[in-house]
Specification:
71% helix, mainly alpha
């Protein structure tokens, strides 16, 4: 059965999963259609992009081989999405799958995450991005220095999650 992912992911109330689980089930039974789901990261509709990322995370947590086969795309291609929800999803995927990356990929992920943190006002990207960058900086002194600098700028942020993560980084140095 052909499924229009963009249409399915646009259904339902704003703060619900909508038809995300239907799409997940369809992909699990038709894995060759995963590329159609990935295209939704670039939808004009941010709700579709958010639900596509939610579906993707569910799928790769159940079958990490899908992540492995598309790892380069998660780093290079999907990071080009304009949607903050996709960037946030990538940050959490990078964090969860950190052991799958080599040193060269670490550098690209670090560059992406640093750019997102430096250019975002979104509290979730800031908090989760700092968390990822802290983890990545354990083996990179230059990155660590940059992360500490950003943390110092955010240590008094009005948003508790951002402030707490920034203060944790400073305290741990």
């Amino acid at each position: 059965m052909e499924l229009d992912f963009e249409f399915e992911l646009s259904k339902g109330k704003q703060n619900s999963l909508g038809e995300t689980l239907k799409v997940v089930e369809h992909i699990q039974n038709n894995i060759k259609e995963i590329d159609k789901l990935f295209l939704c990261f670039f939808s004009n509709n941010s709700l579709v992009a958010m639900r596509a990322m939610n579906a993707t995370k569910r799928i790769i947590k159940g079958n990490n081989q899908i992540f492995v086969e598309n790892k380069k795309r998660f780093i290079d291609e999907f990071s080009e999405s304009e949607h903050n929800v996709v960037k946030l999803g990538l940050i959490t995927i990078y964090y969860d799958f950190i052991s799958y990356f080599d040193d060269k990929e670490y550098k690209v992920i670090s560059k992406n995450a640093m750019s997102w943190v430096e250019n975002s006002k979104d509290w979730m990207i800031l908090a989760q991005g700092l968390k990822l960058l802290e983890k990545l900086s354990n083996s990179d002194e230059i990155l660590k220095s940059n992360v500490i600098s950003i943390a110092r700028q955010l240590k008094n942020d009005e948003r508790k999650a951002v402030r707490s993560q920034a203060q944790k980084i400073i305290k741990d140095t």
